[in-house]
Amino acid sequence: MAQRIDVKDLNIYYGDFLAVQDVTMTIDPQSVTAFIGPSGCGKSTFLRTLNRMHEVIPGAAVEGTVEMEGVDLYGPDVDPVAVRRNVGMVFQRPNPFPTMSIRDNVLAGVKLNNRRISRSDAEELVEGSLRGANLWNEVKDRLDKPGSGLSGGQQQRLCIARAIAVKPQVLLMDEPCSALDPISTLAIEDLIGELKQDYTIVIVTHNMQQAARVSDRTAFFNIAGTGKPGRLIEMDETSTIFSSPAQKSTEDYVSGRFG
Amino acid sequence: MTTTASGPPVQAPARRRTRRRTTDRGFNRAFRWIAVGSGVLMLAVLAAVALFLLVQAWPALTASEDDLAASVPRYPADTSLLAYVGPLVFGTLLAAALALALATPVAMGIALFISHYAPPKLAQVLGYLVDLLAAVPSVIYGLWGIFVLGPAVLPVWEWLGQVLGWFPLFAGTVSPTSRVLATVSVVLAVMILPIITAVSREVFLQTPKLHEEAALALGATRWEVVRTAVLPFGRSGVISAAMLGLGRALGETMAVLMILSPGFLYSFKILTSAQHQTIAAYIAADFPEASGLAVNTLVATGLVLFVITLAVNMGARAIVARRKEFSGAN
Ligand SMILES: Nc1ncnc2c1ncn2[C@@H]1O[C@H](COP(=O)(O)OP(=O)(O)OP(=O)(O)O)[C@@H](O)[C@H]1O
Ligand SMILES: [Mg+2]
């Protein structure tokens, strides 16, 4: 089940450095939300607070609340490990486990959760997840080969298969296509379109056309200068952001007149 | 364009570039010679050692059993050289294997704690302490084994002998002196702990952030991150580390010589005295009084140790190479 995320007054720190200031936004379930903005404005940083990956960096801290269906992810008795099982993540660089076969990569998350899984269930899950990631036909004959032997685009889709195999409610993607060729990019964009039936999807991208193509809503982040915190400038329907944004800086950015 | 205008500016950089390229080539050539030279030197040294061992061992290898029995102390009648060296090889391998079995898990635990659990300050101090262990001379370890460790572990050996006496390793009379192979193995384990820990720690620290984060993002606990990302990545490194340790344990002389009360049997009774001896300690113990064919016999046993150490290293390499496809090197 896809879930809705409400972020209120979020400040994000690296040690003493305030990287992102005062973000309040709502992310709708079963939709694709795109984050755009210049480099260094804190898109990745903000994205990583949505599955509590931010805090694995030494000295990192968060103020404010991130509620998922009303439950604060940063509440005192919420286990970050449980949060990450609910909120999957795909990274900028494909990162399948190099020591594992393609099959074991897909099953990695499931095995982690210490669930015993029967052989037939495992086979079914592997096929289902790889089909879900549009990779099944390319790898079905070499499931026992190492995942690192695939092409970059295939590795990225393997990472998506691995993320959806644990049946998360939300899927975060940080520039998932930036290391890929146009054809692999298209394959992943199609996939995002299909996945939003079942998941809440948040995607960071530097590619305006991509944001326009895949997302329902777009959030624009900006930064006033180096050393200043990044801020959410505005968030709206993607068509509105790209045709008639409320803020001048948004218009400048999406029309390429930035800086 | 006129020749006068374009000539010098074109020529000058061209000449400079040529010169730089020549010195580059010079460095390249020098580097290649140094690399090839040191490789050849290593091989030559290795070959020289092997040759020395072979030449010196030859009289013993070719001598008749009667000659050996006549001139080598403790040489049983009607025994081939191989049968004579056998128990020594057995003792050497048993002591080293036990030491490795004790040291590797502990070393990996310490290395993981330092690299992935301890706060940075504590990690630094711990790493330093473990490195210090490597600086203790083996004579000191020998003394420590006799006067401190031996008496300290004696109650444990007695308990093992009583409770687990049915297990071949703990069978037999438990020696009250504690100068047995079990004690030796513990000392050897302590001696090889630093090298295994240091190498494993380096390997674990090199785990790509990317893979650790992949595991974390799937909802891995700290231990699961270690299991899915760190250990598989470090596998071949830990094997090399263990083999380095094994190499040291096989060749360790002084501590064994001082602690162990020797015997020449194929025996698994590591709590009983006068059962085992290692090759290195045997050579060191008997060499001062040996002469003639006895010296050749000692060199022959040294040759066996040399072959074992070579085999161990080659085996380690084979293990590391076997899973290269999955190692993350590509
Ligand atoms: N591990 C870190 N430690 C300290 N500061 C960091 C760390 N990671 C990022 N920052 C800082 O936080 C700010 C936001 O970085 P972030 O990576 O979130 O930007 P971004 O919008 O994702 O940029 P890009 O589009 O280039 O990926 C930057 O000023 C960056 O220098
Ligand atoms: Mg980023």
From TrEMBL, chain A:
CDD domains from the UniProt entry: ABC_PstB_phosphate_transporter (cd03260)
InterPro entries: AAA+_ATPase, ABC_transporter-like_ATP-bd, ABC_transporter-like_CS, P-loop_NTPase, PstB-like
Domain ABC transporter as annotated: residue spans: 5-248
Gene3D superfamilies associated with the record: P-loop containing nucleotide triphosphate hydrolases
GO molecular function: ATP binding
Pfam families: ABC_tran
Alphabetic keyword roster: ATP-binding, Nucleotide-binding, Translocase, Transport
PANTHER family for this protein: ABC TRANSPORTER I FAMILY MEMBER 17
Protein name in UniProt: Phosphate ABC transporter ATP-binding protein PstB
TrEMBL record, chain B:
InterPro entries the record matches: MetI-like, MetI-like_sf, Phosphate_PstC, Phosphate_Transport_Permease
Record's keyword annotation contains Lipid metabolism: no
The protein's role, per its UniProt record: Part of the binding-protein-dependent transport system for phosphate; probably responsible for the translocation of the substrate across the membrane.
ABC transmembrane type-1 domain ranges (all copies): 89-316
Protein origin, superkingdom: Bacteria
Transmembrane residue ranges: 30-61, 81-114, 126-157, 177-199, 249-268, 293-316
Name under which the protein is recorded: Phosphate transport system permease protein
Region (Disordered) residue spans: 1-22
Compartment list: Cell membrane
Key word Membrane present: yes
Gene source species: Isoptericola luteus
SUPFAM superfamilies for this protein: MetI-like (SSF161098)
A Pfam cross-reference name: BPD_transp_1
